Amino acid sequence: MGARYLVRLDDACPAMDKERWDAVEAVLRERDVSPIVAVVPANVDPELVRGPADEGFWDRARSWAAAGWAIGLHGFSHALRPSPRGLVPVNAYSEFAGLAEEEQRRRIREGVAVLAARGLEPAVWVAPAHGFDPGTLAALAGESRIRIVSDGFARRAVLRGGFVWLPQQLWRPRKMGGGLWTICLHPNTLSEPALDRLARFIDGHRAAFVRPLEAARGAVPYGPADAAHERVFAAALALRRAAAAAARAAKGKTG
Predict the structure, then answer these.
(1) CA angle (183, 251, 239) in 5-degree steps
(2) Fold of the 3-222 domain
(3) Distance between the two ends of the chain, CA-based, in angstroms?
(4) How far apart are CA 59 and CA 12, in angstroms?
């Protein structure tokens, strides 16, 4: 079987960049691609404030759910702080990783309540900055009906720790070999050329795009091969990030 693709859109909140989100939404709706859309219930992160709060945001979020888009709980406030790296060792900062489980439960409970008050029930957990730990999963199990995690570097949907994990390994459209690949996009900062690349990629691989909940139904138990693939992928990602950081530093010295 060839590669299959998911799309994930991060950082949806009332103060998001409405025009950029309009453009991304148009590309996906025109091509009947249903993404995971990660909604921040009570944003306090100034990086996500791209304009005045849109009074129609929650109506828009309900329209996503009505169209079959999978609503993700993207933390509670998106307030990032230095933290342990957690279950997915990408960043040393997060909103959740390292907090006491009771505090994580409170944030999950209040985040779910914010969405419920607006007619939304999240189906997927999307951790800000990939930062979460076993306490987060316990909090999700105890305070929500969420049983899908969008994260990890496996090549397929896996059953792990009582949750379905839909892997998230890409940050731009890219042709891959067999497996399930999630392309994570941040519409607030997505450039017009990047949006054009997304549209062309979907047009060239339309039959390979799947709906998130359909992909979740195909999950299989997590095994040694999945763990090995994640270790290799994480190491390669760390090397690429280190090389990119070194290149930026060198450019800064010579610029």
Answers:
(1) 45
(2) TIM Barrel (3.20.20)
(3) 47
(4) 13
